[in-house]
């Protein structure tokens, strides 16, 4: 079975659309890779496959091989040059950043790689969606992976039911890695309307027996690109209150950073106003020897200079520690 090569499978879920599941999935994958893990990302949001866009590999196509599909590589495992950040001031990755970073390989699979035209609408009934999800889980020839992240559509639809049925069947067969289905990361935004919908997703996890690894509150503020001050445009704290109510872990709040948007949309390396420090890490400053609008380097290399990278580094370390402690 193709899933036999995978040690841990993590679902990224939300009962609400537009909360940034794909953005969170992308940053979880990049951070896991930066921590040296081999990572795969499976996009089962069939009507809105955005993972190819986030990883800047929209023009790529999957290759057919005997027995299935070969996922699209984002980058191979390799050593990155030292980070451009001037200092890390006690950051957990300080020594590694100063001497270079050994990253793990990263690859992706999405319906976006299969459609003849990326603007084509996917108008499928439930049975065809179910068949496609099952095919993604049985016919993708993943290389050996430490983590497979599955980016899901909003709600509790046919895709979710098909996904869980197939995963639970595959991960319970003899020879499957123990506790292979690690659990789910649930994404919300702070507003009450989002929290209300995401509570349904947490109930879905409880009823289906999926362990919730934690809640991430996304869009909890807006980081000004000129002064780096964070303003809580959509309020803050609703995700943490919900996590306490359901007695699940709260992984952290993540703000909207226009520099990350620019990195994804235009491939530009993030640069910040002088004196910007996040999680003890001094960010690369404008005019600090960095080329304005530079598009050189791998996505994972440029992401190291994003203000969200130190936040996700902490989130992922807690996730990995939690998963390992329950193996």
TrEMBL record:
Subcellular location: Cytoplasm
Keyword presence, Repressor: no
Amino-acid positions noted as binding ATP in the UniProt annotation, renumbered to this chain: 15-22
Sites where the protein binds [4Fe-4S] cluster: 224, 227
Entry keyword Cytoplasm: yes
Protein name: P-loop containing nucleoside triphosphate hydrolase protein
Species annotation: Lentithecium fluviatile CBS 122367
GO BP of this protein: iron-sulfur cluster assembly
GO CC, alphabetical: cytosol
Function statement: Component of the cytosolic iron-sulfur (Fe/S) protein assembly (CIA) machinery. Required for maturation of extramitochondrial Fe-S proteins. The NBP35-CFD1 heterotetramer forms a Fe-S scaffold complex, mediating the de novo assembly of an Fe-S cluster and its transfer to target apoproteins.
